[in-house]
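Input structure tokens:
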């Protein structure tokens, strides 16, 4: 059931009310001043000539953002999903991003936690807890950050130790017996040392059930702990240390059957009609290699440790920063992609990831017309892993194992020169050198001779950068235009294949113009941008066919393509405690040159169960790229007092238009989703209780689809139905 009329009406009325209220309420409160570090220096967000969105830690809770996947409901032109329901998020900004389930390739969107790059997005799936804010930059990044990306950057900034003693805790309980606990303590250990310890755990919430056995699926089991310590070594030298431990032993996501499914040697399952229905069963041989029993449900058993040390020295003319980091992560994950009790498309992932990085940078100080930043970044990565698979047409267990090593070095710089009080020039250059090596015997079957280990190599040696200008139309109205060149690493397809032939790096020339403004004494904030991307060697999810196993995914390069679009964000203070936010975005893209395998035609040209010997390809030039065209969202909040009680009511909502699913040659329908929160507490008390509703209108919507056993046998990964819960917050 679509609710676009209802949402459109609510939004239209809210906008009319906003316009009248903002003009009539002369004493209205101003919007909060947002300070960001997107350009590696503290500055007001609306003085940054970039397409930048910010979500505060408080807003994360109000908007029900628990993991990074949930960010897409709050940021324009951002999509985050877990491909095929797995535990690895995939980020896409303005249509640029990957769709894959292996864990060995770099993300097109840079993800940073306290400035430390997470090159493998599977390491970012843990809970978002004790977060100060999240900054999302759209467009190629490389002149400000350690790693080079074509899509953008997601910066997660955690809360720092405080100079005074503070402590707090929150607890919530909701539908399907899900509960979450979080707490922190922060304060001084001495005159020069302060520390912070935070922890969270999320348990329960099984909302799916097995169509054959009735067994429940979907329990969360996430735990994380973070410790931070800041030592003022001297008046000009500071050392920051941080350590984070995460563990995710949650159930996996169950799939639904979109079409009838004829199991080999079994029945033909009808398409699923119930929302929460799914199916699974692990085979004895797959259970043995996964180290679990034959009663195991789809699961994750992921564990990570992040360590970093930031050393900052005030040199007078500049700040020198050294950032040393070490990440270790173990991925163990079982998914049943055919969603039946038959072993036809089951997979077990295993990875051991180790990343060391070192960054040095100098950042200018002072208020002069010339500001600058120069830096160097080095990374050494080891990623050993692969996955076991069972296909309907293959008698034996299949294994695709690999060992990958990456060594990358980058020099980056960013400059700004104010020619006048209103007009400034922006520039930056980056040089990146990278070597990637992967060793693999390809896909092997149990009981057969393992081929000799093969070595595959790829790399890049590229210059990228940005040039632009900023012009202040008024003290609080900034216009800007940028031209940038972004580069993203190549890599290897480690799906079921006999060869891990590398795909090439992708290059984007990005053209962007925008405005950032705060009006009416900061009661109105309006930011907007338009962009055009000229793409070369875009990395896309394509297909290949094995004569025995049939259709397989493969990452390939589309020689030429383009994307264009625009986005806008609006925030209004209406007075009397009422605030409204709105955002909208549009994007469209096409292949200009791309010849690819036609999965539907190839399936039709071969026997249902193989062998697949006839491959059909076609010219995809002028075909649209596979991402949602429109996104829209917003929130409306009201703070008031009822006697001695402070009350806050808030609702937020988001829309995403339809998405073309490459792997099933079908369209995933667009959807609306809304959440609501109501909280209250005594005005002078340090506690607050609340009621929340997620997916308020019980909207059914899907994340991804797949057709591993031909496009006629389709499964989909659904989102949760409506859930309701209570929350209590306490802080001292």
């Amino acid at each position: 059931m679509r609710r676009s009329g209802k949402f459109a009406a609510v939004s239209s009325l809210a906008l009319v009310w906003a316009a009248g209220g903002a003009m009539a309420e002369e004493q209205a409160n101003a919007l909060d001043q947002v300070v960001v570090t997107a350009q590696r220096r503290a500055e007001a967000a609306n003085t940054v000539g970039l397409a930048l969105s910010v979500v505060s830690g408080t807003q994360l809770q109000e908007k029900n953002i628990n993991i990074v996947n949930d960010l897409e409901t709050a940021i324009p032109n951002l999509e985050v999903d877990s491909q095929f329901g797995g535990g690895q998020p995939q980020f896409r900004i303005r249509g640029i991003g990957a769709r894959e389930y292996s864990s060995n390739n770099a993300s097109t969107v840079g993800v940073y936690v306290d400035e430390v790059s997470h090159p493998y997005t599977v390491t970012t799936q843990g809970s978002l807890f004790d977060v100060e804010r999240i900054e999302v930059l759209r467009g190629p990044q490389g002149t400000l950050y350690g790693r080079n990306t074509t899509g953008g950057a997601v910066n997660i900034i955690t809360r720092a130790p405080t100079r005074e003693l503070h402590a707090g805790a929150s607890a919530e309980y909701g539908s399907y017996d899900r509960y979450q606990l979080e707490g922190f303590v922060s304060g001084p250990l001495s005159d020069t040392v302060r520390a912070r310890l935070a922890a969270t755990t999320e348990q329960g919430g099984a909302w799916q059930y097995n169509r054959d056995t009735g067994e429940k699926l979907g329990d969360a089991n996430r735990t994380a702990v973070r410790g931070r310590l800041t030592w003022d070594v001297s008046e000009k030298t500071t050392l920051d240390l941080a350590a984070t431990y995460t563990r995710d032993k949650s159930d996996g996501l169950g799939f639904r059957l979109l079409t009838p499914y004829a199991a080999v040697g079994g029945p033909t399952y009808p398409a699923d009609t119930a929302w929460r229905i799914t199916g699974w069963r692990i085979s004895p041989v797959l259970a043995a290699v996964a180290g679990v029993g034959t009663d195991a449900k789809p699961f994750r058993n992921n564990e990570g440790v992040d360590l970093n040390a930031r050393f900052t020295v005030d040199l007078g003319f500049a700040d020198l920063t050294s950032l040393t980091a070490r990440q270790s992560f173990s991925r163990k994950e079982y998914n049943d992609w055919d969603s039946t009790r038959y072993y036809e498309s089951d997979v077990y992932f295993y990875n051991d990831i180790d990343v060391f990085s070192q960054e040095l940078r100098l950042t200018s100080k002072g208020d002069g017309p010339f500001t600058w930043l120069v830096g160097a970044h080095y990374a050494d990565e080891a990623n050993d892993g692969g996955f076991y698979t069972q296909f309907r047409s293959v008698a034996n267990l299949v294994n695709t194992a690999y060992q990958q090593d990456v060594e990358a070095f980058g020099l980056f710089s960013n400059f700004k020169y104010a020619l006048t009080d209103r007009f400034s020039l922006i520039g930056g250059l980056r040089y990146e050198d990278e070597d990637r090596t992967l060793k693999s015997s390809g896909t092997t079957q149990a009981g057969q001779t393992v081929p000799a280990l093969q070595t595959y190599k790829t790399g890049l040696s590229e210059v990228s950068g940005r040039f632009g200008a900023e012009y202040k139309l008024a003290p609080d109205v900034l216009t800007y235009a940028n031209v940038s060149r972004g580069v993203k690493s190549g890599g290897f397809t480690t799906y079921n294949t006999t060869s891990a032939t590398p795909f090439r790096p992708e290059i984007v020339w990005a053209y962007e113009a925008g405005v950032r403004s705060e009006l009416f004494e900061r009661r109105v904030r309006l930011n907007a941008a338009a962009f055009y991307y000229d793409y070369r060697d875009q990395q896309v999810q394509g297909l290949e066919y094995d004569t025995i196993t049939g259709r397989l995914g493969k990452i390939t390069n589309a020689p030429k393509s383009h994307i264009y679009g625009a986005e806008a964000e609006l925030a209004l203070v209406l007075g009397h405690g009422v605030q409204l936010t709105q955002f909208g975005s549009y994007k469209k893209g096409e292949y200009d040159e791309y010849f690819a395998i036609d999965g539907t035609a190839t399936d039709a040209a071969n026997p249902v169960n193989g062998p697949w010997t006839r491959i059909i390809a076609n010219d995809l030039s002028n075909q649209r790229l596979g991402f949602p065209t429109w996104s829209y969202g917003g929130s409306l909040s009201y703070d008031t007092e009822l006697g001695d009680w402070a009350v806050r009511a808030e609702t937020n909502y988001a829309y995403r238009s339809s998405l073309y699913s490459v792997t099933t040659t079908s369209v995933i329908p667009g959807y609306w989703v809304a959440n609501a929160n109501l909280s209250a507490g005594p005005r002078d008390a340090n506690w607050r209780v609340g009621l929340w509703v997620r997916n308020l209108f019980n909207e059914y919507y899907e994340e991804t689809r797949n057709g591993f056993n031909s496009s006629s046998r389709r499964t989909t990964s659904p989102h949760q139905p409506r859930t309701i819960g209570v929350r209590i917050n306490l802080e001292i």
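The two ends are 45 Å apart (CA to CA). Residues 1-28 have pLDDT under 50 and may be disordered.
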